Amino acid sequence: MSTFQYRAYTRQGVMTSGTIVADELDAAIEALYGSGLTPVMTVRCADNESVSATHPTVRDALGLRWAGSKRLGGKELSAFTTELASLVSSGVPVDASFRVLAGAGASPRRIALANGLLKDILAGLQMSEAMSRRPEIFPTDYIAILAGGEAGGQTAQALTLIAEMLARRVEIRNKIRGSLLYPAILLVMSLMSIGVIVFVLIPNLTPIFSDAGLPLPGILAVLADLPDNWQRLLLWSAVAAVVGWIAYRRIVGDETTMKKLDHLKCRLPVLGPLVQRREASQFARSAGSLVEARVPLMAALQTARSLVGNRYLSARYGEAVSRVPEGRALSQVLESMALLPPAMIRLIAVGEETGQLAKMLVRVASNLESEVQGRIEQLVGLLTPLLTVGIGGLVGALILQVMSAVLSINNLAYQ
Q: What is the pLDDT of residues 112-143, one digit of tens each?
């Protein structure tokens, strides 16, 4: 540990000085930011032993021990962005906003994130540039929308739009998780039932048939070998998983193959329309948010196109966007490429005619997101009875086989 002497401004703008104990210079500066100070000078003291224990708890109080777990969940990122948007919209300076976010009561991960962003911003970076250094926390569309808002001088508005977008994503994710809870419980209970049959009932029946010189009936003969060969089965499963992972990595690295697979996704009967509408909502929301943040239309469309995850659809959106400079309306090129439902195309056309394109694009995105959420809930709702019938049939067939074997024991007794 080393002792560092510093001069820094407090939150009230008063110059203060003192010493702090840290492992290195960067850690000392980060600790000062975390305590609400803005350092202007930080140097290592020549005599490290004189005040080696002056501030022994600074790092612990700041939560810097937790710096390894920097990733924020969707709910925490949404709350972080909502608070940041509220502070910036209220006229609080950006640096002061991050100091508030890193204040008392914040989680260690939020403190570390806010202090890191504050450090980069005070070093001269834009907020979007500082966030782009943390791709594991901030999604691509988050950074793109914020960068567009900063370019148009609408940072607060861009943050508000991002906060609303993240809140909708969290809401949809929570609804899907809630809908999947019962099927997950049903699946776990069925696996437990199958485990009891395989590892308890069948081993108790096997000696009876072995002593009589007869094999177990039906599928029970196959399941009877599982308790003895589970290690071999686990080994082969691990080998298959490794081979599958290697094959997956090679496929992901091949752009042409991935584009063909993305095209195949779009042509699937049930999944295809869902994928297309989800990507359409992503494109519409990104474009609408950027245009509303006063980003030029072509720049907004190009950025929104780059945020489309499906490679096949991204290429089609790129082709549509390239036709806009030719003098064609956005609604016309999207309609000619069949990228959006007709009702959504009409809303975009109305927005172009009334000069409310940004609001209409955001409305289209909201409508498409609601439609995607509804379809997902329908599929999840359909999954429950399908799992019930399928798992019930499987467990019932195993039980019938066991009962048949039990009843046949009487026949063995008379042989």
A: 898 889 888 988 888 989 998 888 889 887 88
pLDDT(309) > 90: no
Q: Of 70, 64, 78, 18, which is closest to residue 42 (Cα–Cα)?
A: 18
- pLDDT, residue 61, reads 37
Burial of 374 from C-beta contacts in 10 A (0-12 / 13-18 / 19+): exposed
- Cβ–Cβ under 8 Å, residues 34 and 8: no
Q: pLDDT tens for residues 319-359? A: 999 988 888 888 999 888 888 888 899 999 999 999 899 88
Q: Read off the tokens for 235.
A: 């080994």
- pLDDT tens, residue by residue, 365-396: 889 988 888 888 888 778 878 888 888 888 78
287, 371, 394 from 181: Cα distances, Å = 35, 22, 21
CATH 1.20.81.30 fits 181-415, yes or no: yes
Sheet holding 38-44, edge to edge: 15-22, 2-9, 38-44
**DSSP secondary structure letters along 9-60:** E-TTS-EEEEEEEESSHHHHHHHHHHTT-EEEEEEE-S-SSTTTTSSTTHHH
169-228: pLDDT as tens digits:
888 788 778 877 888 888 888 888 888 877 787 777 777 777 766 777 777 777 777 777
- Check if CATH label 3.10.20 holds for domain 2-62: yes
H/E segment holding residue 342 = helix 342-354
- The rounded distance, in Å, linking the Cα atoms of 293 and 115 is 27
Q: What is the pLDDT of residue 29?
A: 77
Q: Which residues contact 328 (CB under 8 A, 6 or more apart)?
A: none
CA distance 385 to 255: 38
Tokens of 108: 């260690």
**CA atoms of 259 and 248, how far apart (whole Å):** 14
Task: State the CB neighbour count (10 A cutoff) for residue 298.
Answer: 12
Closest to 159 in 3D by CA, of 146, 168, 143: 146
The CATH number that domain 74-167 falls under is: 1.20.81.30
* Fold: same for 74-167 and 181-415: yes
